[in-house]
Amino acid sequence: MEGTVQDILRDARIAFIGCGVMAEAIMAVLLRGELVHPRQITGGEPIPSRREELAARYGVRIVSDNREAAAEADLVMLSIKPQTLDVVMQELAGTLRPEQVVVSIIPGATIAHLSQGLGHAAVVRSMPNTPAQIGSGVTAWYPAPAVDERIQALVEAVLSAMGLSVRVDSEDQIDMATALSGTGPAYVFQMMEALIDAGVHLGLHRRIAEQLVYQTMLGSVLFARESGKHPAELRNMVTTPGGTTAAAHYQMEKGGLRTVIAQAVWAAYKRAEALGAGRKNGGPELL
User: Which of 95, 146, 175, 258 could form a disulfide with 121 if both were Cys (CB 3.0 to 4.6 A apart)?
Assistant: First the structure.
């Protein structure tokens, strides 16, 4: 990405179609980091109380008409629920200018479906995760062929405000990223919950167990990233033959932890594929 994020976003106008939790999170990190001014942001939101809330909190312009919200934007962020996508596309179809780019964070919405429904070629499909709400997330994204390098730089600047921005090599890798990083925080949270409960079972107060687990998780991730070593190598570094870690690791392998995680990621991936194909039966919510 040529130039700083601040340079790229200095005059960019951004519209959010749907102003729910994730849209507000993106607004917040952009404004908190002083990457954009409130006048550069417009939102389309049908609920009056929500419009008033966001306008008062961030000083941004929130309107009821999605077409009005998108009219002057350089980047239009589709941050609506999947079940409202077709209705919103009907509203916006034929109103977007060729130089505008549409960035979707809607799980399962393919580039082909978005382009056809909007009558617009410049579309980017992306998948952030929940830590993006504090600027520590990771967002996988993939552009349609009509999105040129200049517009890609704008997209990357906006998405990188939420944390790490990763442009994947093909659109089908968005479904893979959905299963790994989009759904990934839920895997980590469940592991944290299990460890905390195990600590309480041993006799620790829950507050102390939470402190120990949170810092262990955070420190381990930071250490792994800083060390540059493979996780298996790091695990071996703290595994003494006949020691406590070896005993614990034996039970995790015996219980099939690796297999369960692999199966969970695969199930999430197949569900993401099914959403993209329009199959709606069964499976968990992705976001």
Answer: 146
pTM of the model: 0.88
H or E segment and range at residue 251: helix 244-254
- The full length of the chain comes to 287
CA proximity to 101, closest of 73, 129, 127: 73
In whole angstroms, give the CA distance from residue 46 to residue 115. Answer: 23
How far is Cα 231 from Cα 49, in angstroms, rounded to an integer?
A: 48
Residues 155 and 103: beta-carbon distance below 8 Å? yes
Residues forming a β-bridge with 61: 42
Asked if residue 27 belongs to a known ligand binding site, the reply is: no
25 φ, ψ (degrees, to nearest 5): -60, -40
CATH number for 5-168: choose from 3.30.750.24, 3.40.605.10, 3.40.50.2300, 3.40.50.720. 3.40.50.720
The sheet with strand 101-104 has its strands ordered as 61-63, 41-44, 14-17, 75-78, 101-104, 123-127, 137-143, 163-167
Token pair, residue 81, equals 């629920």
Is 19 marked as a binding-site residue? Answer: yes
Contact between 245 and 239 (Cβ < 8 Å): yes
Residue 278, marked binder = no
The alpha carbons of the chain give a radius of gyration, in whole angstroms, of: 21
β-strand pairing of 137-143 with 163-167: parallel
Q: What is the pLDDT of residues 214-261, one digit of tens each?
A: 999 999 999 999 999 999 999 999 999 999 999 999 999 999 999 999
CATH number, span 184-276: 1.10.3730.10
Amino acid at residue number 44: G
Per-residue pLDDT at 4: 84
- Residues 132/184, Cβ–Cβ less than 8 Å: no
Q: Does the annotation place 66 within a ligand binding site?
A: yes
Q: Report whether 54 contacts 19 (CB < 8 A).
A: yes
